[in-house]
Amino acid sequence: MKHKQTIEKLLEVIGGEDNIKNFEHCATRLRIILKDDTLVDKKQAEEIPECKGYFFNTGQHQFIFGTGKVNQVYEEMNQVLDSDQKDDGFKDDVYKNLNPVQRVVRTLADILVPLIPALVTTGLLMGIRGLLLELGMDLTDTGLILFEMLTDTAFAFLPVLITYSATKKFGGNPIIGIVVGLMMVAPQLPNAWVVAEGGADPLYVFGIPVVGYQGSIIPAIVAGYLISKLEKGLRKFVPQMMDLVVTPFVSLTVTIGTMLFILGPILQAIETGVIDFIVYILEAPLGIGYIIFAAFQQLLVITGLHHSLSIIEISLINDTGSNVIQTLMTASMAGQFGAAIATGLLMTNKVKRSNALSSSASTLFGITEPLLFGVNLRHFRIFVSGMIGGAAGGLVTSLLGLAATGMGITFVPGLLLYTTDIWTMTQYLLVIAVSFSVAFLMIRIQAKTIRKELN
């Protein structure tokens, strides 16, 4: 076994394999839930071979191995424990350790994260279209129509995707979720975007204005929740022989009726108000909102609250066609990246320096946990230097008025979201360079103190 020493030391640190309740892995971390947390030797956790960092959050002991390697360690650990089903029910165990706010954020993440690949692809296709036009390619009307089909479909039918994902998450019939989502954006209803622009009037039913739910997120999530609760409730008393007809019929009709005439309009207004308020704060005078967001965004990553940003990003793209959150997230990452690289170069121990630099590499592809928990959070000065770098990038973003055309990818891959012209791509690289350089310089200014702490 390639990682035998790593797993043996890991099991020793956590109090033996008998202390494991459940475990799984994400992109960079092996996440373990234990029966007795007091048995963990946190000092020895830093000595696990190949491990780039350890932290405890939401009831999970999280060991950072990095992209790719964590998959290998996980598979070998399954072999050692003689179980390939150990992660069954892991999410249920995680939810038991979350407070109400964390549960809401985790629920939103479970619903929205599966949709990100489709939305990322849409954003990349927008970038390809912009790049082709910038290179002087003369697209025919048919070519433009086909590109519109590729770039607009996912967002036009976004409530369908969300209702499906939400219904599946809450334990309902996902197919009923799809049907309700389709009804919410049915062509028989006035298009919400056209109505907002004054190009059409809403339908009035019993004096209630009714429009489609194109681009809506919260109403679609609530629709999925209603379907699931109705379905589960009906099955408690509907005779089994009638279940096939009664349960889906009532679930579907009650949900779509409630959404169109009662909850939908209210939730749509609330969602619009909240998003407008957040955008208003972000666009505060003198770039203050951008500066603060870019400085503190990586704190959201540490707490796991960054998943909730997906709602804002999706809404921004729907409403404006651009997404400044992506730019600011990249600035925040670049700041921490600059601080980590400068810190690694101050380390005299070759092993520690190598671990610090390798932990930072995944940041180039938008994954910052190894960098944060393996390097920057070990010393307050380092993390704050990264925040200052991010703030500088936020200011540059504000001055340039820069924003992405999509979501889901950041840092180097995110360059594909800025292909409308060469100047836009150059601006994006400038934001990264400023964030990185300012953070790097902040570490160099404090080099004497930080070097003493590190070595």
UniProtKB/TrEMBL annotation:
Membrane topology term: Multi-pass membrane protein
Swiss-Prot/TrEMBL GO biological process terms: phosphoenolpyruvate-dependent sugar phosphotransferase system; trehalose transport
Membrane spanning residue stretches: 111-132, 176-196, 202-227, 248-267, 273-292, 324-347, 382-405, 425-443
Annotated localization: Cell membrane
Keywords: Cell membrane, Kinase, Membrane, Phosphotransferase system, Sugar transport, Transferase, Transmembrane, Transmembrane helix, Transport
SUPFAM superfamilies named in the record: Glucose permease domain IIB (SSF55604)
Organism: Natronobacillus azotifigens
Catalytic center residues: C26 (phosphocysteine intermediate)
GO cellular component terms, A-Z: plasma membrane
Name of the protein this chain belongs to: PTS transporter subunit EIIC
Species classification: Bacteria, Bacillati, Bacillota, Bacilli, Bacillales
